[in-house]
Write a structure and sequence with these properties.
This protein is of the alpha+beta class. The chain has a five-stranded antiparallel β-sheet with strand order 1-2-3-5-4. Adenosine monophosphate binds next to loops.
Length: 113
């Protein structure tokens, strides 16, 4: 999708050091980390938000969740971590390409801000 920064990252139009990449997803460090480990996992397919997920994406969504726990292990997050999807205006979704935040290596408070 034109003018989508995460599509540009997924397509290597913006050079990004990937933490992990395969044909379906790419994982990279967040530009403004909110924890010692803060990575983003995105589908390479442009999906604007969680609300935009369709039946067609069912397998991809399951794949992402499965990969997230593998990545968490690779990132040394055996003490715990949080996975966040900000969806829509009230959640301050700023990038309109579905992304999963993985945050870890610090105590994460609850409720979130
Ligand atoms: P959200 O508020 O859930 O939409 O989060 C978007 C996240 O993307 C924020 O944490 C940003 O710091 C991060 N971000 C935006 N642009 C980039 C980029 N080019 N590379 C890495 N992270 C980015
Ligand atoms: Zn996109």
């Amino acid at each position: 999708m034109a003018d989508c920064i995460f599509c540009a990252i997924a397509g290597h139009d913006i050079p990004t050091e990937a933490v992990y990449e395969d044909d379906k997803i790419i994982c990279f460090h967040d530009l403004e980390p909110q924890a010692p480990v803060h990575v983003l996992v995105i589908p390479k397919k442009h999906i604007s938000s969680l609300d935009a997920v369709t039946e067609e994406d069912r397998e991809l969504m399951g794949y992402i969740m499965f990969k997230i726990h593998e990545l968490a292990a690779d990132l040394g997050l055996e003490n715990g971590y949080r996975v966040v999807i900000n969806n829509g205006e009230d959640a301050f979704q700023t990038v309109k390409h579905l992304h999963f935040h993985i945050l870890g290596k610090r105590k994460l408070t609850w409720p979130p801000g």
